[in-house]
Amino acid sequence: MKELDRTIVLCDSTQQERWDAYVQDCPAATMCHLFAWKGVIERAYRHRTYNLTANSGGRIVGLLPLVLVQRPFFGASLTSMPFLDYGGVCADDAETAQLLVDRARALMQERHCRTMELRQCEPSIRLGVSREDKVSMLLDLSVGADSIWKALPAKVRNQVRKAEKSGLAVCVGGGELLDEFYDIFAVNMRDLGSPVHDKAFFAEMCAVLGHSVRVTLVRDGQRTIGGLIALFFKDTMLVPWASSLREYFSKCPNNLLYWDAIQDGCKRGCSKFDFGRSTMGSGTYDFKKQWGAEPKQLHWQMLSVSGAAGATISTDDAKYRFLLELWRRLPVSMTRLIGPKIRRYLTN
Fold first, then answer.
1. 95 CB contacts (<8 Å, ≥6 apart)?
2. What span, in angstroms and rounded, lies between the C-alpha atoms of 93 and 68?
3. How far apart are the first and last CA of the chain?
4. Which of 229, 249, 233, 251 is nearest to 241 (CA)?
5. For 221-315, where are the E strands, in sequence order?
6. Distance between CA atoms of 227 and 143, rounded to whole angstroms?
7. The predicted structure's pLDDT at residue 76
8. CA 265/CA 230 separation, integer angstroms
9. Residues 6+ apart with CB under 8 A from 122
10. Mean pLDDT (10-residue bins), the chain, 348 residues
11. What pLDDT shows up at residue 312?
């Protein structure tokens, strides 16, 4: 395919069906590439989005979703995709991928962005540097729930049984359970010292993704003490968000939540369970590893306007460290009010 055969254009809502058809057919595409995220992020956080497509012969041969985040004091960033684990370029070939990256670089300059970040699952492109401190944690579901259960360490099986013997019960649904999940999620994010997502982010997600979203709660009697949100795409069940109340950790609600989710993924015919991203050696990495999940290296490509390595605002950023230490001491009611106003600028 010659370069002149391909044109890079912005894709609007009239082209959503064509965009999503390519995402469904492209092996490298993830749930995070779906066109629906454009509306979710625009409506929840009012960020401007740019969905680039490479076209040839009347068909899409590559795409790149981008979100412009205008960060106060830290400069604008262009990210694919913020707030999610994955993103970046999907293309039929390396030449098309490079054309999309070149257009993104030009857009970066046009919008006076300080940094650009492409959250690639594979090292198919290179920008300034590849940030490789993150991995996704994947569990093979094709062997079935019984085999997974038998392969679990005795400690994990005992923790699931303890949750069941403690009288904890699981409730499964969709957006109608979001309020209860968010109450738990907001407390957990405060305890971690991290600004919480706006509930509108999850509400928009549930509204547009519909049956691809599963909300699970775990209850102790009448009280909701934990929950998770799972997303379904192709053969994969992905769990990006999960939380439980710390005062109930002794009853192992997280173990019950994840075991129920794994069983559900098997029943639905999924072949992969994606626990979401982790940092190697962290507590969340160890928790996911004990379920039999294996790490898969992520390749987040970072670039600054000068051509050097880029950077994103994170909870490890020195400029935010003091705020995050104070955050744990604030009332949850206050963090729910002001947290989303900060979280919209944190692309992690």
1. 1, 3, 6
2. 26
3. 36
4. 229
5. 223-233, 236-244, 272-279, 294-297, 299-304
6. 26
7. 94
8. 10
9. 28, 299
10. 75 96 96 98 98 96 97 91 96 94 95 95 81 93 98 98 97 97 98 95 97 97 97 97 97 98 98 95 94 95 70 55 83 96 94
11. 46
Residue found by looking up tokens 């999610």 in the block: 84
Q: Is 334 exposed, middle or buried (0-12, 13-18, 19+ CB in 10 A)?
A: exposed
Could you tell me the CA-to-CA distances from 8 to 104, 106, 115 in Å, in that order? 10, 12, 21
Question: How far apart are alpha carbons 129 and 156 in whole angstroms?
Answer: 38
Among residues 107, 5, 111, 116, which one has the least CA distance to residue 61?
5
The greatest distance separating any two alpha carbons of the chain, rounded to the nearest whole angstrom, comes to 66
Tell me what percent of the chain is helix, strand and coil, each rounded to the nearest 5: 40, 30, 30
Instruction: Give the helix/strand (H/E) hosting 102.
Output: helix 94-110
pTM value is 0.92
Q: Which residues contact 167 (CB under 8 A, 6 or more apart)?
A: 220, 221
Could you tell me the domains of the chain? 3-132+299-312 (3.40.630.30), 136-296 (3.40.630.30)
Contacts of 188 (CB under 8 A, 6+ apart): 243, 244, 245, 246
Q: What angle do CA 275, 133, 303 make, to 5 degrees?
A: 115
Measured CA to CA, the distance from residue 255 to residue 270 in angstroms comes to 20
